[in-house]
Amino acid sequence: MSVKKSGKPAAKTAAAGGARSTAPSTRKAGKKTAPAPRKPTLLSGGNPQIPKGDGNRPVQAYLAAIPGWKRDVGRRLDALIVRHVPGVRKAVKWNSPFYGLEGRGWFVGFHVFNGFIKVTFFQGTSLSPAPSGGTGKEARWIDIHEDDLDEAQMTAWIRQAAALPGWGRS
Fold this sequence. Notes:
- The chain has helices spanning 56-65, 69-84, 151-163, and strands at 53-54, 89-93, 96-101, 105-112, 117-121, 140-144.
- The chain is α+β, with helices and mostly antiparallel strands.
- The termini are far apart.
């Protein structure tokens, strides 16, 4: 290593076998930059793989990652639920958004598939009229395609479902 007249070591050059730059650093000392967010993986059927989490942030990440026309339908569903259920709680569980009320459990969730979004009401047999899908003891669902979201019917189901005891804990 050579020494300049100032007594400080001279910067290595590429020719001398070093690759150190003498240009001032633009990065502040001690401050790490966050890694760039990764684009979510799409699982079979185009369902986004979003880490589970409580609150609006993971649900919004899920909605943003939904491919194609289903993103708009997912956002419309989210907006309907928020508009008609004051104090709704949100979470992503099992790569699906869930909606519920504090102390009452989850009342609805949805999941993306290739050609539709399946909206599941966890106490769907108690809704009037009950959604057509499902053979479980209580849950019923409806498959929403690109142009068939009936907002009036969905709003009625959302309001009814929110008034019932939900599934699990929210």
